[in-house]
Predict the structure of Isocitrate/isopropylmalate dehydrogenase family protein.
Amino acid sequence: AKTTRIAITPGDGIGPEVVAEAVRCLEVLRDKHQLELEWVRFPWPSHAWHEEHGESMPADALQQLQAFDAILLGALGDPGPVNDPDRYLLPDSVSLAPLLQMRKGFDQWVCERPARLLPGARQYLADDRARDIDMLVIRENSEGEYVSQGGRLRQGTRDEIATQIELFTYRATERIIRYGFQQARLRAAQRRADNQSRQFRTQDGRQCDSQVCVITKRNALRYWGDLYTEVFEQVAADYPDVATHHELVDAACMKFVQCPWAFDVVVASNLQGDILTDLAAVLSGGMGVAPSCNLNPDNPELPSMFEPTHGSAPDIAGQGIADPTAMLFTTARMLEWLGRQDRRLAEAGERLFQAVADDLASQHGQARDTRTIGDAVCQRLG
Amino acid sequence: AKTTRIAITPGDGIGPEVVAEAVRCLEVLRDKHQLELEWVRFPWPSHAWHEEHGESMPADALQQLQAFDAILLGALGDPGPVNDPDRYLLPDSVSLAPLLQMRKGFDQWVCERPARLLPGARQYLADDRARDIDMLVIRENSEGEYVSQGGRLRQGTRDEIATQIELFTYRATERIIRYGFQQARLRAAQRRADNQSRQFRTQDGRQCDSQVCVITKRNALRYWGDLYTEVFEQVAADYPDVATHHELVDAACMKFVQCPWAFDVVVASNLQGDILTDLAAVLSGGMGVAPSCNLNPDNPELPSMFEPTHGSAPDIAGQGIADPTAMLFTTARMLEWLGRQDRRLAEAGERLFQAVADDLASQHGQARDTRTIGDAVCQRLG
Ligand SMILES: CC(C)[C@H](C(=O)O)[C@@H](O)C(=O)O
Ligand SMILES: CC(C)[C@H](C(=O)O)[C@@H](O)C(=O)O
């Protein structure tokens, strides 16, 4: 079997701290299960690299990364102490740009963020049905509101007009919606294998064991809304076993708080997905536990990228107190993804997921530092 | 004193039912306090009008409405039983269009949606600090994502590209942000009058008794984000007594669930405001209680429009069980707004608000029908 290679980019702030625990877990798994796994650590993209070189990563960064099977990223961005005049400051739009460059450069057109409230995670909602939350939010990751097109006319004057353009193509819309239906089927199959089931009603009253909900704002943003609606209906015809549902983004946010347990798979455009996945992260217990996967499902030449949903948290960086749980869940998800080619990696991913979930369930809410959590998980793995 | 005139547009679904209770309350207040108040009821905009005339409202609708001091709107939209082949169906984008036409036609550039969790309202969050939620979300209501520009190239083919354009002007950005700072000051003054106070820290560490938080997504949608950021900083310089804060829309949604009690005034663009106000409505106890005010603060010739945040709820329409609370809070807010010219109207608005709030607090969670709630509030007013 060919060796699987991972590019590790710890980044800024708490990134290197949580990545260190992920690497320890990878070492334990590799040694114990003789995994054909190796990794290379990169000092970029990062704030420090920018300070030294005037750019967040080298010009050939994507070429270098392309040689790997996956990228494991810590966190980017270092606003630092804003009052320190000697501090090298960068706007977010600069320090976070590498994230968007990787997503676009490697055509990671799927961003997957599952939401489940695991035992031990913080429950923000009053209703105890929150324990039943089990959804997968799938974000279109390649276009839409994130095309960075537009401009500023008469900039800086009282007559200024800023234009921000959103672009949606049939091609990207179709592939993300189809991916959503495929995932819905896979999730239903998994539930059947686990002797579980969920019921969803279609609009014409039939019962299905999975559902895809598409998000638009078609009553106000028509061109995007009509394209998404039409493509959704077309693709749905190929999946009569999957119930379909349509929510406007404002109503969806409301229902994520009022009845999130009613959702199965949710497909949303880039910005709406960004918003809904942050909400979904809270539903799962907050940023401390939420993984994020930027996937290219159809081109094995291009690496997918795995990052926790949280940021670099400069306020607690350097203190060794960041919670590595989200990073470890992310690492587990990466192994499962890589395991599509090598079943032993998939098993390692499941083991890591289970160890982190067991650790979370056993913590009884006490605050533990980064290393302590890493130790506990490594011990469960060993 | 000149008579204040209200155009009442009950609309569709539960709209006429909840409006009926608002009218009863207005009658009690008018008779008891000799208010110079009159109203005219319009059968449009509505689904029924569209069915008969092929349009949701007459061509001169805005001209007719312009003669009034305010518009009190029930709810629009009637998806009806989708399986009934005889049903006259309209897409949302058609039946809800009059809302957007009024907002644009009367330059109602402010949409105000307060969020407070009043006693008796449903608490969705587990943390009891939810009882301290007291924020005002101010939505830019005249442009941005809602300009309805763009189109579909190669529509219906596999090569389709849909474009959706967002436009932001200095003029509309400046006025909505300035309005936010003014409201922050007024809220702080009101708290002082009530012997209450709240503390917010500015970025350079000073303490203020009010705050404005501006929402962008400047790390990904740059042109809009940069304009909003620059104008926010300019306007803030005129209000050194108000603390300033910046949130990205994804983080803001998260914090609305994690720590909504930390917000005071929030200013957001049209679509982001749409999303955040739906979340804010949930924080206040849900759609059953949330008012929405579409205001033109600077042109007394153009009427403002008041509507509950909820929709026409076709699933429960005609049963007399819709909760009129949101409609009654909306009516109270309308009277307060009209009271800028006539202090007795403002007092009537406060009385109505208090009666509805007292009724809400006294309900002990039992389900009551529309009329019962209206009766109870009228009795408190009488
Ligand atoms: C950092 C930012 C550009 C990014 C995004 O908006 O996609 C982040 O919010 C995320 O969700 O991964
Ligand atoms: C009905 C719809 C067009 C409207 C909006 O998006 O503004 C509604 O959601 C609202 O918030 O008033």
About this structure: Residues 122-283 of chain B form a domain with the Isopropylmalate Dehydrogenase fold (CATH 3.40.718.10).
